[in-house]
Amino acid sequence: MSFPSDFLWGGAIAANQSEGAYQSDNKGLSLVDILPSGQHRIEALHHPRKALNTTYDYYPSHEAIDFYHHYPEDIKLLAEMGFKVFRTSISWARIFPKGDETTPNEEGLRFYDQLFDECLKYNMELLITINHFDTPLYLVEHYGGWRNRKLIDFYLHYAETILERYKHKVKYWLTFNEINMMLHLPFFGGGLILEEDEDHNQVKYQAAHHQLVASSLAIQSGRTINPDFEFGCMLAAGEIYPYRPHPSDVLKAQQENYEQYMFIDVQAKGVYPWFTERLFQDKNVQLSMEKGDEQILQENTVDFISFSYYSSRLTSADPEILQNETHGNAFSTLKNPHLNASEWGWQIDPTGLRITMNSLYDRYEKPLFIVENGLGAKDSINENGTIEDNERISYMRDHLVQIEKAINDGIPVIGYTSWGCIDIVSAGTGEMKKRYGFIYVDRDNQGGGSGQRIRKKSFYWYQEVIRSNGEFK
Known about the structure:
It is a single chain. The chain is an alpha/beta fold. It has helices spanning about 15-20, 40-45, 50, 65-80, 90-95, 105-120, 135-145, 150-165, 185-190, 200-225, 245-270, 275-280, 295-300, 320, 350-365, 390-410, 455-465; strands spanning about 10, 85-90, 125-130, 170-175, 230-235, 240, 305-310, 315, 340, 345-350, 370, 415-420, 440, 455. The chain has one domain (about 10-465): TIM Barrel, CATH 3.20.20. It contains 17 helices and 14 strands. An eight-stranded parallel barrel has the order 1-2-3-4-5-7-11-12, surrounded by four helices. It has a two-stranded parallel sheet with strand order 6-8. Strand 11, helix 16 and strand 12 (about 415-420) form a beta-alpha-beta unit.
């Protein structure tokens, strides 16, 4: 058994990391539009009030790679690779500039009409994320972000608007990107500005509940608009291993895995899992639910499980051992002595992808969709004008081998969309030098450069992978 004949090969980007044109055609500001780059960005993500009150020299999202104006040539390049599916997101602030309006911005809707038509011209399926870390800034400043239950209604109006508009163009939908990121980067995940004197756990879990209800209501409406829609949840995944075979470490890893799956349990099974009663008690969380919430969650579960996978993680119950945790990305982890790491400290564990896939399918028994995976690395143009990104090819080859093995394990997999298929602004650092794409974009960390698109060596490699349906690796 190999990759299914209808396997969806493709790639993924996000509106806020690619489009630029941050105020074009009546677009409003999203929370990403106030974030700078480099160390300032990392600080701003954890202290967003400072970002609101600071004027920085450079904002990466304002221009990004200008996908807004370059999408015809970019989609043509993706089609040249043979993409069967393209994942991107819709910018909420393009459709409703403030987020709480009644009437949508027609110019924003028209842009996505044109973008989606360009993809369909090449027989490319669309996988669209409704909210990918870009809640309108107005909703953050005037309503407190997702801590406020009113955002359920605003999100639902936005979701119904685009579900109706694109009902004959888009089949696959994701309601929220990496919904568990609410616990790790709450400004990204929920537009939350946490105050020192409030209970952070209470605010984060309550905001997450609002998103879960909103997700279910969007699915409910979507199935009325077009019964052929397929809806997925989206998890920032990565199996958490025990550092030692000591039972206390094994238990700690098990508990942390439970916590990362909690939101997906709700979206896939329709109920909060059994362990949340103890979890909320330990964290002093008192979840407020309105009448009907439980029924809404139970009756509107997802069709498939989508997730991002970049690395596994490692934990211990020993406080002294935990002092050695690293922070290569949004998740802290101990260094695994059996793994190499990327330039940004992300530990490379292809087998961990197969382990994660087995855990997800064992838990949910729903088809999987790998919607983010890839290697962020520095790329350089050689004297002959080529880009030899062999490390990226090796990384992706090793992960595709493990996906194939997971399929042989008996897991149904819809498709694979590599992250940042064309170079985009890094979400975590705002840098351009951290590149994931098959296509190089001539932009630097300060927004300089020609914007020229150049095919990397991985472009031709992935082209052959798709052409051979995964036989060429």
